[in-house]
Protein 1
Amino acid sequence: MNSYIHDFYVSKAYYLDQEEKVEPIELLEVNFIQNEEQFTNNVSDGQWIRSENGEHNINSAVEDSSYATVYLYKKIKISRPQKAYFLLSVTDGAKVYVNQRPVAVHFGYNYNGEAKLVLFDLRKGSNNIVIKTINKDWDWKIKCKILDEKQGQILITKRNESQEYNDFLSIKLKPANYRHTYTSRVGTFPRLIVDKPGLAREYLGGNYSIKVKWFDSQANEVFYPKIEGRYGFYAEIIGANGIILKKGGTLFFLHNDRMVWNNRLEVSPEYFPIGDITKEVWKEHKEAISFYMGHITLESIFQQENANLLLSFLHEMGKHKYKKDKKLTPLILNGDYHAQIKQKVLGKTEVYKELAPPKNIHSQPQYLKDEQKSFQRNNPTFTKELRKICEDWIKDEGSPFDMILARDGNILFHDAFGEDDYGKFTINTPSEIASITKLFTGILFAQFVDQNIIGIDDPVGKYLPDFPLEGPQAITLRHCFTHTSGLDGHGLFNGVHNPWLENTLFQTIKNKTAGTRYKYNGMGHDLAGKVMEAVSGKSVFRLFHEYLYEPLGMKNTYHTWDLGYSVHSTAYDLSLLAQMVLNKGSYGGKQYFSEDTYEKILPKDLKQFYPNLTYDNDWDRGRRVGIGTMFQEWKIKNKDLGTESFMLSENVIGHGSATSSQFRIDLDNNIIITQTRRRGKSRFGHHFEAMYQHIDNYLVRGVK
């Protein structure tokens, strides 16, 4: 029984008008076929599809899979009644019935992540399995496996252990003061304790000790807090079994508790949409919001460690230490601070060449120029139709966006469409661009490579002593950027904000071999960020501002959290970065990296580096990946000829995102397409392809 379901009968696809704007959970409730009789009576023009590895590509059975519905049917026979587990992965959504009883409803959104595991009953003899699955856009895959009760329990235990171990590695240290808060009074340092002592005892061999060093605001080691302000700690949690977890943190010390008593703090935050609370209600109750938000803020200051970053930042700004630099943030200063502490703890003796700013050059590589008026005057039909595609997109999906189309350095189209609860969307409205962040991280790293400070194939342990992997287990910077390190996930363990992230990641990967498995993730980028901090002594977020955002003039771009997914930006700012890449490393009279380095970061077939590389799924197999870049080929089918052809060229690089923001550079045709939005909806692929096809027809194929 412990095997994949290798074949299904797949019905014809259904496209119901009333379903087009329905969310997946609603869609799955419409016209569900529950049993064999209904299936036989209602389903026609179907076919069998088979897969040896249990992964069924439904696209192969459906001509047009955009926002479609199909039913899968399978009959299995067993000799005795028993309980079993259904293991299900699906790209968008599926509802499963076994013998007319609902077993599972599952929404994929992370097809390559953890599959849904559900217990159900099988009867002796024949058992009918019917799955209704829906697809929004692009990939349409489903993987099903039935496990007996014993094997299902083993898998559950492994999952629980894995999650529990990650929870252990995420242990935090907190002050053991009488208020259990992160702010303290000048005079003595509080004793630090772990927030999950049971997990600590389990994974540290029972007993453990905590050794702590304290540092003042200048990153000098001190033994008690003399004055008000920022203090940081470096701590080692040492287990009886030899495991050492390293932790760092920031506390703020006050002369007294004057912020606790008799304070009324008024806070009036900008409206944020939640539930059915409207802007009108928000405005009407502004006074109540201000009062309660003040209470919430004061509580947060004492109960949340991150509040100390803000207090420390404001305290230091008040002393005019950084008055001239208004772009500094609490995250940048805190990152700088712990980078300094780390260097002192490690007793850094290596002297790395300081990263030089982008150098001035006499040549003037292609600038982005606004040529919309002249282009639209000469190409009115193209512009009118492109605008209509965008307006139809907004009308259909309601998700606002901005976009730029540029060619040969000329901006041909630049506009924003739609509005949401925050108001009208403009060309200056930043949106989270999610995984396009990885491209930013790669471009910053390219500057270190270009100046021979870091080598792409250098092992991480060369720069981070807490990552002592050698030989076949050594993780290189190329591994980090090409998703072949063995790391997994996004934003784990406090991400790049964890001063000792490499110590945590080492615990997860020390028994794995790098370069053997492709697994898309963001933790490799965070690890690379730690390398860049180690050689520069600066917060990686400061590096982004100093070496990318400011020199390129990216006025509406900022990082919030992670190096794999958390940049906010606009289509225009993205186009500046795109043109710099298209210019092979230069823009605006400055050279960020050389053409040699440009060639190094381009996507490549990973098999040339890792011949034994395996993939978790067919979608990633053979994918060409570079340093922050990927090939983004888009093919369209000719239904009449039964052929496929590239839209734009086959040499389109860039990155996509979970918010459906897009970054495309056509290297052959010098075309840039950038788009930012807060989220894509169900028919994103349909409209994106229409836009792509329109641009391809006119600018590449010359179809007027």
Protein 2
Amino acid sequence: MEYDVESVKSFIDTLWVIDCAILVFIMQAGFMCMETGLSRHKNSINVALKNAADFGVAVVIFWIFGFGLMFGTSWNGFIGTDLFFFKTENAEYMTYFVFQAMFVATAATIVSGAVAERMKFNGYLIITILATGIIYPIVGHWAWSSSYLNNMNDAVTQLLVVTGQVKTTGWLTDMGFVDFAGSTIVHSVGGWIALAAVLILGPRIGKYSNANKGKFTGSSFPLAVLGTLILWFGWFGFNGGSNGAMDETVPLILINTFLAAAFGLLTGLGISFALFKKPDPYYVILGPLAGLVAITAGCNSMTSVTAIFVGIIGAIISIFVNELLNKYEIDDVVGAVPVHLAAGVWGTLAVGLFSDLELLDTGLTRLEQIEVQFIGVLSIGAFAFFGSYIVLKILNYIYPLRVSPLHEELGLNIAEHNATSVEHDLIKILEKQSDTGDLKIRGPQDPFTAGGVIGLYYNKLMNKLEKSETEKKIWRDRISNEVKLAVQVQENFLPKRNLENYPVYGINIAAREVSGDFFSFYPHNDSVYFIIADVAGKGIHAGMVMAKASTLFEIMSRDKVDPDEMMFHMNNDLFLTKTGGMFVTCILGEYNLITDEIRWVNGGHQPAVIRNEKGEYQKFDSNSPPMGVIPQKDKSVYHINKIKLNGNKFYAFTDGLSESENQNGEEIGIDGSIKIIEKNFNKDVKKQLTEITKEVIKVAGDKKLSDDLTLISIGK
């Protein structure tokens, strides 16, 4: 079979574009790695799934109508009117569709990283449809529509194009606007949509608190750097494939792409050394990506020296805009706005400033080209930002795009996908180990999370338990030290505290190394949230459940959740994260210092007691079920008790007090507990609670405490 030169060239060009499309597809993996690495571990699964889902949604939407809106026969240069449900028997145009589909997926993925850690999965898919089905295709039509129909081989179509009976060019193309591979069309559009989304969503909880100072540590900077390198690699296809053919222009495109990124990286390094005296990993990521975005618009029409300059300025602008966003508390998790929006705008304007006018071939003077580039950036930016902002604002009113504060604190891995956390996995493993006695089982370990640290030390403990029988004595000596270390880790992890400036106090005496009882107070200006709880069990298993319950209490106390709603959410969460019949009894509520009113819910716990001015005690028995037994459909099963103290005292205690036995095996009981409280009432509250616990221990004598003992006092 003989081939003419034109056929061979066509084949090579098609093969080149296919190869480049594959490289652009690999960029999706780069985005996933970078965004996952810069997000916290509790949201990593959610981020990864968004990157996979938006690609699939983008391609489907683009096939149905996006391609037609972008490349179809033009209506007055503003929008395409045909080519919907794209199909063709021409291999070149099949290839063209695949390559463009990779581009539209990239535009959607840019948004993913910016809104990470606080946006609902379904809400993000809606943004993907908006971006890939409407905004991107329309602005793409303005500047790129002629790249499809103008090159068709069909003689009839060409005749219609030439005679003006079929319009294929967008209005920006008619003006001479140039954006070779999409600094604006792809990257800035994604950045504008991302900016609109983050402004509506607001920053992550605690991102700009004094403790964090605008920084959250991502789950893995090495993974983020790997993602950056994958993106750099794929960018050769992104820019090189935009040429549409393998010709003498491709080497210039590739070397300009490479140099802009390399000098962008060096710029990031230089700025980080200048500011921090050491290389900041975030700046090292921003630098090359900004250089790549900036050079994308003019990589085919600039000299290598110019490309270097564009990459350097792009990196500087990106880092500056990143700091500007932090200053105004605009939370962009991965720097999508600084990199894709800011550097994209700069790169598009740089085409007019520095490109070789002969290579551009627009027939415009330098000043005219700058003007047209500015008009293109401004019009596309206005449409992308205001269009997406208005739609998302309306959507957010109808269907809130942000997850609840509780879900955000827990992490979207669990909240959105029911995926496990380190703490959850650790409890499950401990339960299995407790049931089976299998010492070969190991827990998850992660030096960057509290649960992972506990798992780390617990695994060390299990390693020592597997030593031979001949080393048992050595093992027993060592195990004592390891348990003490585990207790220290737990004590640091659990939010147990008393408050100096509030009329509340509590005390806890553990019967074993790891306590299943706990109390906690969480202050809010004029009120205090409180909890006293008893896990139905002892040891490490009970301690881990206690840790989970304590963490949930503190998370919801921050958001001033009502006691009944708090009990409802804690119950359902604990039911999902424990097995083996373990449950939690508790009293939790809120004390208002101004009104002297106390509100509480008693979930299967010992009665709360209130002492009045006459020295009389009123008992309030449990009126709600304990937590973790069965899931509840609503909060109505939890009943709020409410009373004004009027200067009286509120007491709550665990059964470690009331069920403690004397030497004769007789329980103290509720009435006996009240007598001990009254006996020590005239002492200051701290000494009062201390003396009560001492007396209980004294009554027990040689029997010692059989259960954890916890007691709290509230009231002025």
Protein 3
Amino acid sequence: MAELILFQPKAELDAAQNLRGFIDSCRTELTVFGVDLPFDENVWDITDSINLKGFGNNRHRLVFSNLETVNENSPSPMSEPFLSFAKAYFRYMQGYKPINGTGPRLAALRALEAALRESGDANPVKSDIHIVNRAAQMIVEKYTASAAYRVGGQLEMLSEFLCDNKLITIPVRWRNFIKRPGDAVRVGKEFDERRNDKMPTQAALDALPEIFLRAVEPIDVIVSSVAAMLCASPDRISEVMSLPLDCEFKQLNKKTGVEAYGLRWWPAKGADPMIKWVVPSMASVVQEAIAKIRKTTDESRRIAKWYENHPNEIYLVKECEHLRGQELLNMQELTDILGLADKGSARAWCANKFLGVNDLVLFADVEKEILAMLPSGFPIMDKVTGCKYSEALFVVRKNELGSYRGTNNCVIESISTNQINSALGGRVEHGFQSVFTRFGYVEPDGSNINITTHQFRHYLNTLAQAGGLSQIDIAKWSGRKDIKQNAAYDHVTPGQMIRKIRDAIGDENLMFGPLAELGKKTLIPRDEFARLLVPTAHTTELGYCIHDYTMSPCQIHMDCINCSELICIKGDAEKERRLRQQFDEAQVLMQQAEQASKEQYFGSDRWLDHHKATVERLSELLSIMDNPNVPDGAVIQLSPPKTSAQSISMPKKLNKPAKTITNIKQEIGLKNSEGFN
């Protein structure tokens, strides 16, 4: 384990001296990222020091570039002395609070450096509340809301570090004011856009099952099978890519005698290892998907096993085994060994490796180059679980998933998230074919289908939210440690999702685990609401209000029964009880209003009309509730009332003086009521 030295500032030293001491100690004394870390270089290769899933064989590098040029091919470095501080801080914090996702921490450093440089001096000791606020503003301007929130959290940590270690002249206690993006919006353009961005399109969901059945080429088999697995449980793609070969788990349900099917998972963000049960309706699909992946990747595991047992010898296909030990290879023989398209490709490979003379190449040189191409850390693919390449589900021969390069018969690689997302349409605009374009599927408007693996996670979480699965169960099902994160994945619209979740679940009698209760927990059949074609609905004491508050506020506050936008559902016992209670109260009030009208109380005729209308509507509504021909779950919406509180006639002319509130209280028995002051 890398050695960690806690930096202790000396009180008698000023901020500048403390800064120099901190940088020097991190440069010379720490071993985080390795003892041979090239501290003074502006690009660090930290692939072997962190465990990033889903990156395949791609190297992970820290680039200490400034904020303005971060996305350029030749980015400019941060300015000194902030550059040296940034390197020291990153190395120190990786030992103190290690992270795998380095982006937000590096982004916070870039923003603070940019704010300091804008003020004229890129020295971290000059940081003050105004500089940090300016850095936060730059973060908000550059990143999406969710990314800005995460970077803002790192900026808060950075400012706290500067203050606690006396690395700034004026102490700064800055708190992240960048709010986490809200997820409660359910109506309007904002919700529609957010939901469309987070969810897979219907065209994609319709096309993928057909591609899954028709796929033959390795790239199509792998991608469609991964999509099938992601449709079965809300998994992160990095978790899928890390599955071992023996990931399947079966257990007999002793109560039903039915065999439950699940997968062994190692969640990506710190949750405990677990078995995720697959709903019965999807179990056969997932089994078929894993079988297809196994068949496609079997050769790759054989290659990996060869190198485990023969670390210094090149793997050769059966047809080329007779070439082993041969001193020289011609271009045709090299073509056969590597699996290249033709001898021209073999010559190009030799030229790239600086090998070969007169179309001949030494076997030993080829062997040396091939062995050097094995993945970093081989034979271990996953440092956390210890899973080897020979035991991994998602391992392929190099370039096997590419469409423009020949498959290398001698070298293996793990599949990266980018490869899957590219095949799902992520780089179509750059000329890369997706599985959808290869099979001729497009969106209804003719545009290319483009989805990401993470959209499936949002999709299934939304289905679970719509079906009423508890927040704890959703978090467990999704492999989260914090249930608060559920909200970011909830994109439910009334009626639309409930039908899909029920179809996905299948026979509820065959359920296992938390999903078994999904269908039972939906008290109100919300799919009925979909038929109303209303943009929104919220719960009231008596049922549901479908008023669109984005257009106007409520005009008859708390008088729901006299509103045509009240929706009631037969079979909701609690709300039906409240309706009957309100009916009884309305009858009493109507009788009192009738008596008051006879005695010519001021305004009593208006209240009599109102209470009569209320009693009539409640009576009409309850008669439908009591009608045995109306099934439970039926949606009841009364026609607009003939009269309402807004259209009551003016009071009649009085024949005697109006009575006071005190008189009214005494006569209707409300003298001591808390409702009057």
